[in-house]
Queue: 4 jobs
Job 1
Amino acid sequence: MPMNSLPIYHTLTTILKSLPLSTKLKRVTRLFTLGVIAGGSCQLSDVARALSPLGTLDSQYRRLQRFLANPRVEREALQRAWAAWVLTQFAPSRPRLLVDETKLSTHLSIMVVGLWVDGGCIPLAWRCYHAKAYPKEGQVKLICGLVETVLAADPARSYDLLADRGIGTSPDLIKASHDLNIRVFFRVQGTVKFQNAHGCQIALKDMVKEGEHWQGCGEVFKKCGWLKIYAQVLWGQGYRDPWCLVSTEAVAAQDYGQRFQQECSFRDLKSDGFDWNTSHIWLPDHAERLLLVLAIAYTLVMSLGMRVARPQRGRATRYSLFRLGLEQIKSFVHPTILPLLPHPPPRFMTCVVQ
């Protein structure tokens, strides 16, 4: 099956129609995304090499640089439009949002709110900042701002928000999520005290022993005046620590495992896929524009992985949907984007795209 019979180019064109970009910027975004997919890397030299049939290596490299530096590629408006498209295509009636921070070595930190899908996590809204220059508004307002971007994209839905204990052990975030009408499902530190209806207090980690599961309604976060919450503690056999979970309403504890899809998606964008960790794009606004391209490329590749039959033997049985899609592309695509185009480009293509 030739690669151009796969829906990558068509779907990418549909996505770009929904984004508030000029025709010229949509063209560059299309080429940038296809270059990342074909080159298997977001390093500008690799992307430019994938685009080299459409112009000289230097001209393609400069085009990519201009895109990343262009202030008209505006983060919030694009993320809103991107989130609206993703939610329309992938979200169930009750979407689950995952929030976590990832780092690019010591250069950048990125807070990402993504949509959980079966087999992955699609970035919807994000913010990049230097590791030693955390946004002045603080973590809670930063996360709420990203969540509000998603809500603005589709306010009619009802959302859940999942977070690990580094973010979830925050009564302020729980309160702020409640104000946004977002249901929370957070892991918290085991030392968080739980108070039952009789006033008895105990640390959540002391509720169970290995292999046990406990759940109940009560209050947590004494220093903040106690918050009414549904709590449960799950300690699987062979694990060092239990999951100490708090949620707005009763939720199956095992569902918290969906949060790990976000960590897998970070790995897919980095060492297992597009080499984001070695992109050398360290300016926060440039990195935010690059992540838009990566989010689109990730979604296209993962969607292809959904169509691929999972191997029954060997190492590939453990591949993520993204990795399956990427391996499928590698089997058809050589280092340039030509096989991803809908037809062979005309000889004057260089003049058209520049």
Job 2
Amino acid sequence: MTRSEVERAANGLRVQGHSLYLEPRGRPPLGFLAHARGARPVLPERAVATAATIRLLEAAQPRALRRTAALPAAYGQTFALASLKLTAHPAGHVLGSAQLRCEAEDLDLVYAGDLGGAGKRASRTAEPREQLRCRTLAVRALYGHPRYVFPPRDQALEKAAQFVEKTLREGKTPVLVAVALGAAQDLVEHLGGRRTLRLHPTARRACDVYAAQGIALKGYVSLEDDGEVVLVPPTARIERLRIGERRICAFSGRALDGIPGVDEAIPLSDHAGFDELMAYALESGAKRVLAIDGHAEDLASALRGRGIEALAVREHHQLRLPGF
């Protein structure tokens, strides 16, 4: 990579020539947290994040957050950290998710991180994604393979409603398996006016933060309370819930590959699909694109086919990517 872009370092990816890490591992002096989903138990000494991300971290990782100095970043407001000028913009992934524009001498970099969908594929409960223009774009490529093209959000959510009603007519309990931050809130927003959803604690805490931030969510209760529908994250042990006869529906972009052990799978993802990643990169006007992790090689290859200099970037000691 050329100077003043992104380099691989001990704690992950760092803006080259600067002290800012991008969604780091461990505890570097300074890091940018693009969103609260999957936050690590150890945070940077100083963490740049939006106010909504900080609130979500307070609910999910209070001990980790107490050990960091949070630096709130408001969308669209540029601020300086040492020789860098930084501006956060909505990423459309989950509530509070952000892209980060990094500017310095000879540097015009946008770290898009995990982009969400836009238009008919936009999240119902996250801030609308903003299209940025830049000279260099770094973007995570979780669904950077051409097979990952997702349906409109409303279509996927209505299929969820149909699954719930069909299961209830059969006298069984609908169990929805979705990440606790992101898809869970969209499901609550869509289904909560029709049925009462019993939420796993991680999803319920996130919903409480969303509601406090002005997102209209209703019709959800704790897992121990009464309700027709159960919603749990992929890590939950469903067999321990003692809910009797049930049908299980999983919500993930991986539904396009098939998800074993469930009755139905619906491709409801909080990440942009391949076609959206391509469109975003092309509309950014970037001369250089760094595709990070996931299907980085596939995305970079497709962009090179469109005449853009594109590289696939892997972090050191990369962990296995989650399926949801």
Job 3
Amino acid sequence: MNDIAVFGSSSSAGKSTITMFLLNILKQHNINALPFKAQNFSNNSTVADDNTEIAFAQYFQAKSVNLKTTRYLNPLLIKSGKNSHLHIVENGRFFGELSPIEYYNTIDRFKKTVEQGYIKLKQEGTVVSEGAGSPTELNFLDRDLANAFIALNFKPKIVFVADIERGGIFASIFGTKELLKKIGLEISGVIVNKFRGDTRLFSNGIKIIEKKFNIPVLGVLPYLELNVGFEDSLNTTNYIQRKKPIIKAGVYNFKYISNYYDIEPLILDKNVEVTFFSNLNQADLFDVVVLPGSRQTVLDLLLIKKQAYKILKKTKIIALCGGYQMLFENIYDCIESDIKHTKGLGLIKGDVRFEANKTLKRSKYKIGNFDIDGFEMHYGKADKLYFEDENIFGTFVHEALYNDRLRTYLLKKINPNYCGYNYTKAYKKHLAQFIENAKMNFCVDKFFKLL
């Protein structure tokens, strides 16, 4: 069976979501398939089941089909580093911080890393590889690990995701087809994504793509609600809420926000309205302010302190990892930034000290009276795994809010009328509905002819 590469017309065309969707289609037909992304530029990362760090998108894709997650799903993860450098995670462990020039001078080493990861997964089943950005950046092809390198070396069938919402869809499909042809590659099928309105209105568009471009159209997918699997910052504006909330939660949108999948249980909660905001003067509009993770904790803290941050002293707060660290009295950092010491917000006594060895661990944790399944992923160290008082709950533990009992306890403190819900059940139902709705506009038979 052929492997699949999911390429896109641009960033945010929907490659990550389509990769997840195709994995689920394959699973429904009893085909063992695994997600892969050679190189992911993302601050949204997580700890895999083998206690290594990978991009959240590949973790989400794998978990959607009940796979164990490992470093091989995403052998190269690149995050924002200090002084405009790239923070490189290779095979789930920190490699170093390189300038863009230094990174590209090391590209041959990283090609071997990517190749080894792909081969490892190929031994286990069909690989569904997600590309990055556009696959036809001509000035970049020799360094394009996520697109050209995979396609030329492993010969997967290329499924091209075209984002119709951005416009120019015919130009992007035809142009990509012709440019790929020049390097010996071809598109095997097109998925038109994010169509708003009646998809039957695109029937002539399908004829043009299939007859004039000679490319099968696998589906015209409508713009569908997906409030889980947050991969990038666009998700902070694209989720959909249909609620009659009794709690208004404001999530502070840090400049270097990361790992905000932690708030997905609030997004799915019918009793909680979630709003991302960037001006602390708006904090009193919410019943609770959520301080999520940050890729640059000290730099985001300094930006907060330029605002009316003292309003947080009289605000209900849920703080997670980076947001939690900001609440301490002092932060000593020579890892994420060059600022060795800065005063924290002073809402929790004690200091946070950044250490070279990053904590990466999935485990069971005791938080108050609750047993929590979650993980730690941080350089900052403090003597409190979690902290709670009348107004504040903070913790280093990611996915803490996934626990129904803890989340219900915290939100009842904010509004005694809050009654809670089963997050796991709601998550699975929401994801299943998305997949079934997408299938209604997807040509499964055409897809399997590619394989």
Job 4
Amino acid sequence: MKRLHVITWGCQMNMYDSGRMADVLAPLGYVPTPMPDGADMVILNTCHIRDKAAEKVFSELGRLRRLQEQRAADGGRMILAVAGCVAQAEGEQILARAPYVDIVLGPQTYHRLPEMVARAALAGGAVIETDFPVEDKFDFLPDAAPQGITAFLTIQEGCDKFCSFCVVPYTRGAEQSRPATAVIAEACRLVAQGTREITLLGQNVNAWHGEAGGLGRLLHDLAELPGLLRLRYTTSHPRDMDDDLIAAHRDLPSLMPFLHLPVQSGSDRMLKAMNRGHTAADYLGTVEKLRSARPDIALSSDFIVGHPGESEADFQATLALVREVRFAQAFSFKYSPRPGTPAAVTPDQIPEPEKERRLTELQALLRDQQARFNAGCVGLRLPVLFTGPGRHPGQIAGRSPFLQPVHITGSDNLIGNEFPVQIAAALPNSLSATLVEERVCA
């Protein structure tokens, strides 16, 4: 038995990939361990979206090198691997700066990990796999290990949108959709293992398409699986919110009334500079359609402030859009140049203090909207899927339909089921509630 420790940065897709890397290595005798100390293999699954991503990797590698040296002094060996988007983008540079790394692999090649481990052991040197393979990695992956009450399921990868600020098309490749039969088969296995809520993942998940239709059709098929209580999907692009998908929010009770729909800016001038392919009015029109189809839907989004060329008027347009939409939650960031992207070499870069000022103002507005949304839930009766124990003794935690953490005082027999609760209070990052009755929601 060998010990495997995986450190994951970034999005839910990276979390999914980390689990699948563990699945791939399991036949070699690797079992997950929560700490890197004494591990036989450590994988850094990296994200390249934000500034200084590579420096964070090298900082962590420096710490792990000391553990690797200690392992060698004790007569063992720790294999160090760097995976994910930083590995894809920085490949050779990683080995140049950290020659003690054994394996560098991109996000499309982790199905080859057993072969890479063998090559690293035999050759005694570094192995690098960052070319996009001809084969589909999903055809070579073993069945996924149980994830629990809630689970991620990747159905789409890559991006063809080429936003000016984003490295994803270069690190993840072109948009590809997994076959519906493969997605449904994996969902069936998850449900058989006890999963009650599945979140479908993709860089542009609503760009998924199969022979029978788009994501709306796939959601209808998944909603028919016995034992699957809830469906979600993330992350969506506004350009791919078609009428069938919007109708699925109206027609499928198991599709939760929560949608993460990044807009990035409320300024048409900035949206054009970002190469988003839609206007603010297009986005607002989609929001109107969604709320007409599902009036209680809660919306989340992403925002970037300080994109090159952003004026004060452009920033005020973003604030105006936020006020009009009223988000339940959102993620906001200062623009950071990513090497190889068009925006990184665009003139009119915004000074850091100005980006910081704009971000502070935007985040204050978003926090206020989130607090108002959560406060508006107080007194409501909501179905909550309970996923595990809470932070305090006698406490059980779960998620509302709107993805809010909810905790109650209750027993472990609630876990894995959906029960009605009465929301009693809105706390800064969660809701507290009382159980209405110990009867599974219809």
